Amino acid sequence: MRLSKTLALMPFLAIGASLAPAQAADLLFTQAPVASASWIATIKGNLRVGPSYPGADDFSVVGFPSVSFRRSGTPERFSAPDDGLSFSLLEESAVRVGFVGRFQGGRYYKDDRRLYGLDKIDWAVEPGVFVEYWPVEFLRARAELRRGVGGHEGFVADLGLDLVQRFGAFTVSVGPRLALGDSEFTRTYFGVTPLEAAINGQVVPYRPSGGLTSVGVTTGVTYEWSPQWSTTAFVTYKRLVGDAADSPIVKRFGDENQFGLGLTVSYSFDTGFTGF
Question: Would the pTM of this model clear 0.85, i.e. be above it?
Answer without folding.
Answer: no
